[in-house]
Amino acid sequence: MKISGTSAVNRVFWIILDGVGAGELPDAASYNDTGANTLGNLAKAYQTQTGRPLHLPNLESMGLGNLTTIPGVRPQAAGEGIGAYGKAVELSNGKDTTSGHWD
Hints:
By secondary structure, the chain is mostly helical. The chain has three helices and no strands. It is globular and about 45 Å long. The model has no long low-confidence stretch (mean pLDDT about 80).
């Protein structure tokens, strides 16, 4: 596999953070999830309890901060970092694990 502007990729590490909560989805109001952001809220709680921001340099360089606002984890600018990132959105109506996995 070749990615534009880079050398051939010989290995892929695929990290799936199932159920972690990376910000609300477009249907959040339908499920009383407005403002949901488990990653961001955990980062705030960590900073409150420890007095220092969350520090995840490897996940940050892969684009974790581009998924949602996470205090201490900055977003990567275009062309910066070492990975790719994405956020899945379910296709079916429902907020259960089973239908989410079917999607």
